[in-house]
Amino acid sequence: MNEKNRSAYLIIGILSLVVFVFLTWLIYLRNPEPNYPAWVTALPSLNAMLNGITAILLAWGFFEIKIKGNKESHKKIMICATVTSGLFLISYIVYHQFHGDTKFLAQGMVRPIYFFILISHILLSIPLVPLVFTTLWHAKSEQWEKHKKFARWTFPIWQYVSITGVLIFVFLKLFN
Fold it and tell me: How many C-beta neighbours within 10 Å does residue 94 have?
């Protein structure tokens, strides 16, 4: 492994760990604000929209590179997907800063389905941050074989996490 990759992997690892620890603290260990502005209630809808847009962009970017072989279009679309995911993360943090965790209240058969989706979403979102950063790093540094190697894992996980993010919102809206 060359020194540039070693340094990039170290930075990606540290940043990913910081994100994971911060989100764990924010969502599960910290008490939310008791009184929050009314606009905070609109953030879950925004988050679902950003996740949906990301999923569409990911599929489009995959189509551009795999079907059409259009590298330039693929690059632009994947940058857009990264931006929408980044905006999602900012909005998600703001929402949880004020509101805290949302409990799922429904009972019956929908409950285990929801929790399967939620738990798989959370577990797959943990490696997603370092996977996205590593895949982007290899693209930026034009290490195409490594980029493809990581993208084979990053794409389906990112797509799943984006789609299940929308599904979690839908379940909470329909059944809570």
Answer: 16
Residue 125 vs residues 42, 87, 116, 164: alpha-carbon distances, Å: 23, 15, 14, 10
CATH of the domain at 37: 1.20.120
Number of domains, the chain: 1
| Structural domain boundaries enclosing 59 | 3-175
d(CA 90, CA 14): 19
Q: If you ran DSSP here, which 8-state letter would residue 40 be given? A: G
Global confidence as pTM: 0.93
pLDDT tens, residue by residue, 89-124: 999 999 999 998 899 999 999 999 999 999 999 999
Give backbone dihedrals phi and psi of 69, rounded to 5 degrees, phi first.
70, 25
Q: What is the rounded distance in angstroms from the CA atom of residue 126 to the CA atom of residue 103?
A: 21
